[in-house]
C-alpha cells in the first residue's frame, strides 16, 4: 500500500501528495482531546515531554481510524491489508523524539502492535498547546496504582482485586469516544467508589474525531498504545512509574484459532511483546524506568469471572457491556 503522509498540528508540506491533516486545536481542529477529573493539586509543572507524548499517541490513533485497510473485502489479508504511515509532528523538544534511542522503540512498538509500517519526523512546534489546556479539573486525588479501565470484565476484575486484596488506592484511566461506553464506565466506577470509599480515582480521557474527520477503519489496532500512553501520562502526573493492565492470557497471547486471525487481524493489545515494547519506549521517552505489567497473563476468562464473584461483586458483571 502507498505511504500515507500525516501532517499534524499545523505541520507544513510543499509536496504534491494529498496528506491527512490532524489537529487538536485552532481553526483546523478535527480532534478533541480532554483529560477529565485531574485534581489541581496533582498538576504542578507539567513536563513538555508528557504533552508531546499524549499528542503523538492521539495522532497515531486518529490516523489509524482515518486510514482504511482496504475495505470490507480486505483482500490478501497480509500485504494489501498492512499500511505505511509517515508522520510529521511539531514537538516541544523535537531533538528528543528524533533521537534513535527514542524513535526506534516507538516504531518497534507500533509496528508489532498494528503490523503497519511507521516513520516519524519531528519538527519544532511554533505555537504548542499547553498540556493544561487539555485538562478538565475535578476531584482527582492520589493513587498507588494506575490501571487502564475499559469497563470490560478483565479491567473490572483487576480493579476489584487491587482494591480488595492489596488495599491500594487506584487511578482508573478510561478512553471514551462514545456516550454509551462512558455511561457504562461511570456506573461501574460509581459502584467501586461506593464499595471502596476514598480509594478510587477515575480519569476519563476523551479522544475522538470531529465530524469533519471521517472514520474509515474500525479495527483500532493502535488503541492500546493510546490507552497505555494515557495511563503513562496520568501515572507521571501522580508521581508513579507503573502501569498495570489486566487482560486474561487467552486474549493477550492471541493464539490463531482460525486462518482469519493472522497478522494484525489478531489484536495484540496486551501481548507480552507489546507490553515489553511499551516498557522500552516509555522508559526511553520519559528518561526513567516505566514498568508495565499484566498480572492476568495466566488467567482464563473463567478465572476472571470467578474472581469477581468470590469478592462479592458478581452483580457488577450483569451488564451486557461487561462481557468483553
- Main beta sheet: 5 strands, mixed
Main sheet strand line-up? 6-3-9-8-7
Helix count from the secondary structure assignment: 9
Tally of DSSP β-strands: 11
CATH topology of the largest domain: Rossmann fold
Rounded average pLDDT: 86
- The end-to-end distance, rounded to whole angstroms, is 32 Å
Summary of the model, kept short:
35% of the residues lie in helices and 19% in strands. It has 324 residues and is of the alpha/beta class. It folds into two domains: 131 residues, no CATH class; 179 residues, HUPs (Rossmann fold).
Give me some keywords for this one.
324 residues, 11 strands, 19% strand, four-stranded parallel beta sheet, disordered C terminus, Rossmann fold, single chain, 9 helices
Describe the structure.
This protein has helices at 48-65, 94-98, 100-114, 153-164, 179-195, 223-237, 249-253, 272-286, 301-310; strands spanning 3-8, 20-22, 31-38, 84-91, 117-124, 135-137, 145-148, 170-176, 200-209, 242-244, 291-293. It is an alpha/beta fold and 324 residues long. The chain has two domains: 3-133, no CATH class; 141-319, Rossmann fold (3-Layer(aba) Sandwich), CATH 3.40.50. The strands form three sheets. The chain has a five-stranded mixed β-sheet with strand order 6-3-9-8-7, with helices on both faces. Strands 2-1-4-5 form a four-stranded parallel β-sheet. The protein has a two-stranded parallel ribbon with strand order 10-11. Strand 7 (145-148), helix 4 (153-164) and strand 8 (170-176) form a beta-alpha-beta unit. Helix 1 packs antiparallel against helix 6, helix 3 runs antiparallel to helix 8 and helix 4 (153-164) crosses helix 9. The radius of gyration is 19 Å and the shape is globular. The relative contact order is 0.17.
